[in-house]
Automatic annotation (TrEMBL):
It comes from Neisseria flavescens NRL30031/H210. It comes from the Bacteria. This is Uncharacterized protein.
Length: 49
């Protein structure tokens, strides 16, 4: 029963790591291909606050 919960926890962690890696790759891809929008973003964030 303990082993089952540990396996479930490990599976969840693996999904979280995979999702984090995917987001990181997407952010790098986005910054590399759209630099002008990336530089414009801080001004947009200032207006939202």
């Amino acid at each position: 029963m303990l082993l089952e919960s540990v396996n479930r926890l490990l599976r969840t962690l693996r999904h979280c790591v995979a999702a984090t890696e995917a987001l990181f790759m997407l952010s790098i891809f986005y910054k590399r291909h759209r630099p002008s929008e990336h530089f414009r973003r801080p001004q947009c964030l200032e207006f939202q606050i």
